[in-house]
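user: can you give me the structure for this one chain? tokens are fine.
assistant: on it. calling the predictor now.
[tool input]
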Amino acid sequence: MNAITAFTVRNEAPLESADELEAMLRKIGAERYHNLHPFHRLLHGGKLNKGQVQAWALNRYYYQSTIPIKDAVVISRFRDRDIRREWRHRIEDHDGDAGAEGGIERWLKLTEGLGLDSAYVESAEGILPGTRFAVDAYVHFVRDRTPLEAIASSLTELFAPNLHEERISGMLAHYDFVNPEIMSYFKRRMEQAPRDANFALDFVRTNATTPEQREAMCNALIFKTNVLWAQLDALYHAYVDGHVPPGAFRPEPA
């Protein structure tokens, strides 16, 4: 088990059906999704200064830009062409296509709108060590665990639309340096995430057929919530508590 996984569901009663599995997955999301993290409460409530928001967007870019790499690894785990075709659009959603803007470009609009140099953002030079370790652990997880666990780890998308809605309304209401144009990434994901989550949920409901496999699905989702939570822990420690590590981005004084 990857070291970032700190919890399993083994003390729970065995999950005997797909419905019980789904109920447990949704319970995990309700209790562990990173919308509950104190950093997000500060971000969405207008309690951060511009430099702290810049630090969040800069570090989160590393995660966003790694998602298509992660998804390419997931695709490589399957010999079934139908699954590969279904999963492939996730890469296009982030990388874009000929004449079509992708999520990475939209995230760079956000960082540029916040006053960050795009070349610096793309270099990942200033990201926190905690960000890098957590994101890289996600890629290693989908490479090393079962293909079914790789798909289950994406199920945080079940809970993303509500977070995006809260983020859009909160940041537009509270920060005069944020405008609707630079928030386009989140608006688009409110359409994409439910489609992706529905496929992944149906896949694990159908293919996790034993209590042991269902337990593994839950632990894969817990792993992913830990990946997201660890990134925010690192941000809070560095930019709220003020312990910025050597080499990491340092905002201009507020």
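assistant: here you go. Residues 1-7 have pLDDT under 50 and may be disordered. The CA atoms of residues 168 and 183 lie 7 Å apart.
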